[in-house]
Amino acid sequence: MSTRVPSITLVLLAVPIATLGLPATVVHADTIYVCWDGSGDYRTIQEGIDAAGDGDEVVVCDGTYTGAGNKDLDFHGKAITVRSENGPDNCIIDCQADEFDLHRGFHFHSGETPLSLVEGLTITNGYAGDGGGIYCTEGSGPTISNCVVTNNTAHDPMEGGRGGGICCRYESNATISECTITGNDSSIDGGGVYCGEASNATVINCTISENRAVDNGGGLCCRCSAPMITGCTVAANTASREHGGRGGGIGCYESAPTINDCTIVGNAAADLGGGVYCDEGSDATIGDCAIGSNTAGSAGGGVACRNSTATIAGSTISDNSGADAGGVYAFYGCLTVTDSEILGNNSAGFYCGGITIIGGAARIEKCTIKGNEGSPGSWWGGGVCCRGSNTRISDCVISENVVGYGGGLMFMLDDDSVIRNCLIIGNQSEAAGGGVHCEDSSPTISNCTITANTAGSGGGLSCWTSSSPVVANCTITGNTASIGGGVHCVESSPTMRNCTVSANTAHYGISGGVYCYYSHPRITNCVLWDDKPEEIRLGGGSDLIVSYSDVQGGWPGAGNIDADPLFVDPDGPDDDPNTWEDNDFHLSAGSPCIDAGCNWAVPPDTADLDEDGDTSEYTPLDLDGEGRFFDDPDTGDTGCGCPPIVDMGAYEFGDAGPQPCPGDLDCDRVVGHSDLGIFLRAWHISDEGDLNCDGETDHADLGILLTYWGAGCP
């Protein structure tokens, strides 16, 4: 080894001070060499640190450093740099510690700042209560750059065991960049890194891999902190405690982490959250991440959140698996997923392969949810499962998901979610609801295309056990099932308004369109045509009300017709009804369905399709997003209400017209005495005063008229 100059003094001009008109300041920055063989200024690293002053640099020669003075290193608050001469592969601090002889590499506890820099070292074989490799506490915030932190342990049977590799506690905001943190172990939290008690570390471009925590955060754990994690690879970490190991990759408690541009792969949690876990009121932001091939012994192979808020944007969550929920699992919190792909995740238990939401609120927008599966024994929801939640799903493609019930979407146990502008295609359920399954729930499904799904019953939609969904402006086409190719109802009361149900098939010969068993659906302003072998069949004690609809083969009810709806091209230019993309169910000119619906039956805009905040108005748009009310001058009005009269089916023929006015029977756009006179003359005699489109003029209609009494129309 060459002889080194023991002290280099640099003279720097402090330009900012000169600009104030003061004399230039001379700053002396020394470079101090530490060499184990005596060829430098000092033999031990601590001696070099002790000799350095603010701004100095301690350069550590190649070699392995052990023993006193080369572990438990303390900067004493100095703004100095300690770096290797030739990178971490050539400069190793071996703490040689074990459970009977506790030591770590560095201990920062004197208010160190980002100007306190450790760079280019390998720190290994540390063993301490917290921070087996590096411990930052008491408001310290050093910079740790281009280091390898490996094979360290945090374990203390009394109270420690956090941060096997690096631990930051008590307002310590370390910056950790370009580091490899691998093979570390903690007996409690944070196998690789732990951030706790308002320690808002910044972790940039690091590889955090093959670390293990017994409890939480195999790779990284944060408690009561807000770390920034950017550009990192978090891989093959584990949280191992059965019924308690959570967050195989990252675990968060009462924290607000920001996780951007990260790859989180191959991590495992014995309990919840194979990739990422959030709990106890956390507020996590996950952006532009790839979260894949993680596993959870319970739920949330990719991401799991309990009683927390999580926002996921621009991310891909794929090929994750969980015993009870595969991709994303949210339990009584607030989940937002936007512009993301949920692909090929798997659940082996009751809940969903893709996204499972239990309680709380969620928003899923502009996502592709595709190819998720429930293994044999998994029952609820291949793509999305919502249980007792308030979820809004919009502008999503939900396709090729497979499960027992609800291949695309599953709603259960008093779930009142809203689904709008979604394509639900090519999903499969072994039992019921290839596209959508509702059980004891009442979602609103608006402006959706439900096509090419398959199931045992209810190829497009199934409603079981006291479900009362509202389905509006939807096409339910080209679905197949043994029973109820389009829709299957059991002990339920769905409402279908302005839907097109066509080209569905029941293989067992029981209603290709709608099959009802002990159910009480209401179908208005719909087109049921060309379903095989029939449009409607009733079983058990069903009581079906159909009005102002076009039903092939006919069906009793006010305003119903049996006439070819004259779809533009229902099997497309290729004459293949199975290629849904080119099948066109718009009404062509001269269709008997034009201006033939009932205005009063158009449901309120619960889905807020026009995003004007008014959910009490009549649904203003059709499936194309065009105006729902248009008066075709070439077609006589045969429907119910004042012009413009709504068309039957999911699509309006023409552009937008004014909204109808509830209760306005004389078409003067004011509800008053004249309307009451018309109503009383029709009382129990005709349907002229029928404001709810049930075919009768009765007390229910009177309630509607009085509600809007004296009101002008929009």
Indicate the mean pLDDT: 92
Helix content: under 10%
Number of strands: 74
The structural class is mainly beta
The separation of the N and C termini measures 89 Å
Helical segment count: 4
- Give the overall shape, derived from the CA principal axes: elongated
What percent strand?
35-45%
**Largest pleated sheet:** 21 strands, mixed
Query: Uncertain spans, ≥5 residues at pLDDT below 50?
Result: 1-27
Q: Over all CA atoms, what is the radius of gyration?
A: 34 Å
What is shown here, in short?
By secondary structure, this protein is mainly β. It is 4% helix and 36% strand.
Write structural notes for this entry.
With 714 residues, the protein is mainly beta. Among the domains are: 456-477 and 484-501 and 509-660, no CATH class; 661-714, Type 1 dockerin domain. 4% of the residues lie in helices and 36% in strands. It has four helices and 74 strands. It has a 21-stranded mixed beta sheet, covered by helices on one side. It has a 19-stranded parallel beta sheet, with no helix packed on it. The chain has a 17-stranded parallel beta sheet, with no helix packed on it. Helix 2 (45-51) links the parallel strand 2 (26-34) and strand 3. The protein is elongated, with a radius of gyration of 34 Å. The model is unreliable at 1-27 (pLDDT under 50).
